[in-house]
Amino acid sequence: MNPLLTPIEYLKGVGPQRAEVLKSELGIFNFRDLLYHFPFRYVNRSEYFRISDISSNIAEIQIKGKMVSLKEIGENRKKRLIAQFQDETGSAELIWFRSTSWQVEKFKALLHKPITIYGKPSFFNGNISFTHPEIEEEDSQKSNFGLLPVYPNSEKVLKKGVNNRVFQALQLEMRQQIQNYIKENLSDELRKKYDLISRKDAFLQIHFPDSIENLQSAANRLKFEEFFFLHLSLLSKKINDNKKFKSNPFPNVGKYFNSFYSNHLSFELTDAQKRVIKEIRNDLGKEAQMNRLLQGDVGSGKTIVAFFSMLIAADNNFQSLMMAPTEILAQQHYNGLKQEADKIGLKISILTGSTTKSERKIIHEELESGKIDILVGTHALIEDKVTFKNLGLAVIDEQHRFGVAQRAKLWKKGSKPPHILIMTATPIPRTLAMTLYGDLDASILDELPKGRKPIVTVHRKDKDRLTIFKFMKDEIAKGRQVYVVYPLIEESEKLDYKDLMDGYESISRYFPLPQYAVSIVHGQMKSADKEFEMQRFVQNETQIMVATTVIEVGVNVPNASIMLIESAEKFGLSQLHQLRGRVGRGAEQSYCILMTKDGLNEVAFKRISTMVETQDGFKIAEVDLELRGPGNVMGTQQSGMLDFKIADLNRDKEIFIAAKNAAEWLLTQDPMLSDSKNKIIFDFFEAFHKKQIAWANIS
Ligand code: ADP
Ligand code: MG
Questions:
Q1: Contact at 8 Å (CB) between 213 and 250?
Q2: CA 334 – ligand 1 centroid, Å
Q3: What residue's CA is closest to ligand 1, atom 20?
Q4: In 51, 222, 496, 525, which residue has its Cα 20 to 30 A from 173's Cα atom?
């Protein structure tokens, strides 16, 4: 057996009880898992601080000195052990909660002796204290290493006595047994080209580095490896896909496209729109299936780009479909696209969950006979038994609402899979997009139509409410409309619903009939009622729309100039950004008001201040990625592919690009990895790839 796969209970110092928590808490089942349990920090044990050196907010440090007093205070669960610690420059308090009598005895024995404490200092009322510092008799440190690893750990594991010191010991014990089995998986050629240390050295150095430089080389090598095999997997899938999937090519750009472009376009396209339409046009001309992600911030004008793509399909006698995540959005797309389609005599229909049976029958027939050129709809579209005469293009709006499985069903709608254009208004950082959609080409609308005014964004608290209501009245007097949005989080649905209703009532009181009319839309309403209320707002029959996040995506009311978001701290960044995008769609100055409670935590504050500072969707997406990690960014939850052990998409962009280049370079040299010098890469890749297949089939 491969010694790396030895069950963790067989490591000296572990045993069955500790093994149990290591498995359940940290996912460490065998030696290899422990090897991959990387330190998240290091402490420089060759460097000593003095108490007078301590400035606030520094990481863990060590100080030489002595304990001059020791006392226990409080009773039972509130019991604390407090020691006064001194060096020649000052004094600090050491605190232990839940101290055991064993600990007390041990510390008593150390009183007035030279010791080294080690921990993270904190300031309170001008005093320096250390909570749960580690204590050593001076010079008991036997390790030769300057940098010592600090491992991620959990409360339950600690309770079984596996503290950081024990983790270090386990790592050292294990390395004796396995270091000769850490196999290289990159060729000499590649390692030379990218200046990478050996895999064995990398694993040894990442746990117990000899120097900062060696630590960096080790981290670099391991991150590179992680990205490299991911890229290799994505690229080889792309090569296979290009071989496998053929769609119908659309060689002609003809009367629909040209006549609409020359005679019916009511504004000038932005340069970005022109560029992206060209990219799509180029793709559609080919037989290889288009798989294109169209990223564009809210309001960047993705819809018209999609429409031009549909015109190319129509010019080649193919049908198109457009799917939206909600009924409201589908309806809005339909209304908008119908106006345009009518101008050039294309037939467009809508099919959603609320389409009646008799309407549905007609639509089915007209799709099969080819009478319908464009079909707009919701998820119902793919669940539905609809078949097309010749579906050539599928446009998917706001893809993150569509599951992978649903998208897969699209394939079955025609003899050949349609070309696919996925539109998303949730900008995804480039690194993440490449990872998530490695086999998708990306187009970016990075320019807003001319004349848009930046949205003034402010952060306000409850005490400002009357001023805000007054401001709303002023805007409404100018003819504008207002959104008021409440959070709706699944776990606390009832509470949120109550907040929404309370809010609606107080707004209705402050903005009474007949002078004002207030709409309300929320998830528990029937879709016909929602639609009715939406339409009243769209028609400007109501001035205020109180809603939960159902309006989040896509809704277009250019006359709305205020977006008031209640309990804004409860929303994620990308949601806030989406919501703000509902205003600023007309020529008027628009406002986004973020209401929060007092005393936000650090992360919530960062979200709110990011919103106030910038309107750049890509910047916002980067902050989002930084705050939440890739696994939580919209659309990535189901992928499971971003569980990097050491690499970080946000911080390691350069390595990410280098690894991509390396994978591309390698596959151009040796597409099948059949050259003997690449055998070690191939072997590792095979094992890796098997694991990845599950998520790699993403679209
Ligand atoms: P999104 O990218 O958020 O889906 P839309 O496609 O809904 O944006 O476009 C937002 C608004 O901007 C629409 O009213 C649309 O008609 C308008 N629009 C799109 N492109 C342009 C342009 N080049 N110039 C002016 N207005 C445009
Ligand atoms: Mg849109």
A1: no
A2: 15
A3: 301
A4: 222
Atom 26 of ligand 1, nearest CA residue: 449
Q: Residue type at 622?
A: E
Q: Tell me the DSSP string of 50-66.
A: -GGG--SS---EEEEEE
The verdict on the CB of residue 337 being under 6 Å from ligand 1 is no
Q: Determine whether the shortest distance from the Cβ of 299 to ligand 1 is under 6 A.
A: yes
Provide the b/e sequence for 655-670 (b: ≥16 CB within 10 Å). bbebbbebbeebbeee
- The pLDDT tens digits of the residues spanning 201-214 come to 999 999 999 888 99
Point out which residues pair with 65 in neighbouring strands.
Answer: 115
For residue 592, give every residue at least 6 positions away whose Cβ sits within 8 Å of its Cβ, in sequence order, or none.
Answer: 455, 456, 457, 458, 562, 563, 565, 579, 580, 583, 611
Ligand nearest to the CA of 326: 2
Give the global pTM: 0.61
Q: How many CA atoms lie within 13 A of 224 on its CB side?
A: 25
585 within ligand 1 shell (Cβ under 6 A): yes
Q: Of ligand 1's atoms, which has the minimum distance to the CA of residue 304? A: 6
376, 330 contact by CB (below 8 A):
yes
The answer to whether residue 369 scores a pLDDT higher than 50 is: yes
Centre of ligand 2 to C-alpha 273, Å, is: 14
Q: Is any ligand 1 atom within 6 A of the Cβ of residue 301?
A: yes
Ligand 1 mutation pick, 556, 574, 577, 588, max ligand atoms within 8 A of CB: 556
* pLDDT tens digits for range 574-613: 889 888 988 988 778 999 999 999 989 888 999 999 999 9
Give the C-alpha separation, 243 to 552, whole Å: 39
* For the CA of 302, the nearest ligand: 1
| Token pair recorded at residue 27 | 């996912």
Tokens (6 digits) for 419? 């070309």
Contact 546, 540 (CB under 8 A): no
Q: Give the three-class secondary structure for 45.
A: coil
Atom of ligand 1 nearest to the CA of 336: 16
pLDDT digits (tens, 9 = 90+) for 97-114: 877 777 788 889 999 999
Q: How far is the CA of 302 from the centre of ligand 2 (A)?
A: 6
Q: Which of 276, 298, 304, 331 to mutate to test the pocket of ligand 1 (most atoms within 8 A of CB)?
A: 304
What is 340-384 written as a DSSP string? HHHHTT--EEEE-TT--HHHHHHHHHHHHHT--SEEEE-THHHHS
298 lines ligand 1 (CB under 6 A): yes
Under the banding of pLDDT at 50, 70 and 90, the label for residue 437 is low
